[in-house]
Structure to design on (144 residues):
């Protein structure tokens, strides 16, 4: 088994990634995080880091991103929270049941057309889950 450790500093919190054989990332979070928007942003950013690490063809598409979005208040999701973030052709959706230890369902969808890029159209869809500090990749598709 191959192990590698990466440490990030995010908003005064230390996050240590212990990477163990793809596609699972075990995350040990030092400090207390409450289940709030900051935690959702952490999940989003950890997913982006995972995509960059395991799909290097996406690295150029995942730099200099400025995210906008937040909680989806449409009421479309019964008994679930739903967050949507967008940036430069990316749409990140995070959905989870309202519970003490939810499984987060994450979808990252990139479209070069949506980003305004010229050239060969590119579409990337990544789907996975986050639970108990682990990311599991369920699907990754790239089309050009």
């Amino acid at each position: 088994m191959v192990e590698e450790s990466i440490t990030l500093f995010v908003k005064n919190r230390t996050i240590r990634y212990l990477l163990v054989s793809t596609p699972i990332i075990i995350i040990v979070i030092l400090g207390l995080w409450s289940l709030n928007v900051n935690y959702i942003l952490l999940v989003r950013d950890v997913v982006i880091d995972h995509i960059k690490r395991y799909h290097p063809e996406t690295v150029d598409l995942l730099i200099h991103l400025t995210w906008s979005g937040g909680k989806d208040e449409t009421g479309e999701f019964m008994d679930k929270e739903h967050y949507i973030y967008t940036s430069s052709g990316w749409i990140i959706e995070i959905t989870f049941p309202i519970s003490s230890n939810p499984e987060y369902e994450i979808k990252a969808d990139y479209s070069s057309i949506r980003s305004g890029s010229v050239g060969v159209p590119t579409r990337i869809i990544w789907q996975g889950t986050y639970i108990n500090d682990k990311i599991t990749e369920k699907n990754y598709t790239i089309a050009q």
